[in-house]
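Researcher: Hi, I'm a grad student and pretty new to this. My advisor asked me to get structures for two proteins we've been looking at. I'm not sure of the right format, so I'll just paste the first sequence and hope you can take it from there.
Model: That works fine. Here's the first sequence with its C-alpha cells right after it:
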Amino acid sequence: MSVDEFAGIPLPFPGTVAPAGFLKCNGQAFNKTTYPILAARYPTGYLPDLRGEFIRGLDDGRGVDSGRVLLSEQGDAIRNITGTISFSDDDSSTYAKAIGSGVFSVQSETKPSFQGGGGNPSTIPAVLKFDASTVVPTAADNRPRNIAFNYIVRAA
C-alpha cells in the first residue's frame, strides 16, 4: 500500500506546523490538480476546518445519529436538564415552604409579612434559583474531556 492512499485522513498531530507533504485541516483551499487524491476525497477543494472540533463517526445505518452524510457539520446540544419546584405548608400554616430539586434550589423562603397594621398577613414570594452546575459540569461550551491536537492530512 502506498503512503498516498492515506491522503485525506485526518491525523492528530502534536505540533503547530504541518510537516512537509501534509496540510492542516483549517478550512483552507488546496489545488485539486496538484493533489488529485485529496481532491477525490474532498471534491469541493477545501479541507474541513477541524480547529476546535471533534470528529464523530458516521452513523452508517446504526440509528444513533441517523440522517447525517459524510463531512456534514452538526451543531452542539446537551441532554435535557430538569428539576421541580413545589410548595408545601409548614406545621404552623403561616407560610408555604418552597422545595426545589434537580437544577432548582431555594435561595429564600416564602415568609409571612404583616403590612398595614391590620394583622392580615401577605406573603413575600420565595426566590428559586436555576443552576445547571448543581447537577452537571458546566463551561462556556459543551464538550467531553479532551486533549488538544492539530489535525493534518497527507497531501497527495
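Researcher: Oh nice, that was easy. Here's the second one.
Model: And its structure:
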Amino acid sequence: MYDRNWAKTDAEKLPVIKTELPGPNSIEIHSRASKNMKGYSSQVKLFPVAFESGNGCTLTDVDGNVFIDFSSGIYVTGLGHCHPKISEEIAKYARQLMNCHDFNTETKMKLLEKLASITMGDLNGIQLYDSGTTAVEAGLRCARAATGKFEFVSFWRDFHGKTMGAASCAIVNQSQGMRAPGFFLAPRPNCYRCPFKMKHPECNCYCADFLEQVIINETSGQLAAVVLEPIQGWGGSIIPPDDFMPRLKNLCDKYNMLLFTDEVLTCMGRTGKMFCMEHWDITPDITTLGKGFGNGFPVTAMCVSDKYKESVENISASSSYGGNPMACAAALASIEVIEEENLCEKSAHLGDVFIERMNKMKEEHAIIGDVRGKGCLLAMELVKDRNTKEPFEEAGKLVYQKAFSKGLTWVPAGHILRISPPIIMEDDMALKGLDIIEEAVSEVEKELGYAL
C-alpha cells in the first residue's frame, strides 16, 4: 500500500526559483532540440522551459526551479506526477511484458471488467488505443457501422484530434484545412459569448433549435451521430447550460442519431465526476476516454453501448499499441486510485475553492471578463472591455508568461487562460497558485493601462 501523503508539500515554500526563467540549461536544451523539433504548442513557444522531474503537483526544471503545476501535462496527470501506485504498476510490466498486440493478459482483463463496472449505463463494448485521436476515429467508424449512415454533426471550437475524421469534427482554425465530406458544424452554447447574441435563460437554449435546423437544412438525413465534448476544453472550458444536454439527447432520439461524447479531456474525475456526462445523468451511445485515463501513460478507450457493441467487430478495431500490458496497468491503477482516495469528491471541492477565489479576482480586475469551471477544469477569460467583451489577446500572452516566470505552469489559449491542476492538489497550494496569477494580472493591467 502506498503512502497517501506521498505528494504533500508545504505550499508556503513554493515555488522555488533559483535562476531567471527560463534558466540557462532550459535555454540550451530548447535551442538544440528546436533545430530538429518543429510544431511546438503555444505553451512551449511562449515559455520554452525544459523539465527534468515531477512530483505530485510540482514540476522541476533542468535548472532546479520548482513550479506549481496548474496544467497537469495539459489535463493528463490528474493524479499527480509519478503517483507511486501507477508508476510501480507500469514498471512491473516494463520488466515483465511490454506488448503482445491485442492478445489478452490478466491486467487487460481486469481493466476491461473495472471499466465496464464504472461506465455510465451499458457502455460495455470497449476497445483500447494509445491516443485520443485514434479512439475518436474508431468511434466515428463504429457509429457508421452501427447505423449504416455516414454523416456527422459537431460543434464550433470543440476539439477531437488531428487526423482527418477527428479534425473534420473539430475545425478550429483555417490552418487545419478543409473538412471531409459528410461533416457539419453547428454553433455551440457559450452563454458568455452567445453566438446568437442572446441571454440565457431568455434564449430558451436557442442553440438546440438551431442545431435542428442544421440537421434539416444542411445534411442529407444520413446522420450517424452527433459528436461533442461535454465541456469544451481547447475552446476555453466552455460549460453548456444545463438544459442543453437533455434537448440534445431528445434531438438524437427524434432523428435516430447516436450520441457520441468525447470525454478524452473530461473523464477520470477532472470535472468532479468520473465521467462528465454524469452531471446531466445522460448516457451516450459512444464515448471516448483518454488523458487522465492513464495519468500520463498513453492509453485511451472507446466505449460503446451494448446495443451497438457488435459493430466494433466490423471496423478493424485493433491497434499496435492499444491495450498493451503497461497501458492497461496504468489505467487500472488510475481508476483504483480515484476510487481509493475519493478523488471525484476532492476535485469537486477543489473546483469550489478555485471558483470562489477567481470570482473575487474578477471583481477586482478590469481585464477579467469571465471565470468558469467544473471541478478542476477551469478558465479565466481576459477582455479589453467588459461591455464589449473584446478579447484581450496581448494580455493573455503576458499574464501567461509573467505567471510562468513566477513559478506557475499552466495552459494558454489566446485571451483565455486555462487552469487544470492535478485533482489531488491541496487547497493551500491552489490558493498560492492563484496568488501568482493575480500578481501577474495586476502587473499586466498596470503595464497596459487597464488597472481599476
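Researcher: Is there anything I should tell my advisor about the second?
Model: You could mention this: The mean pLDDT is 95.
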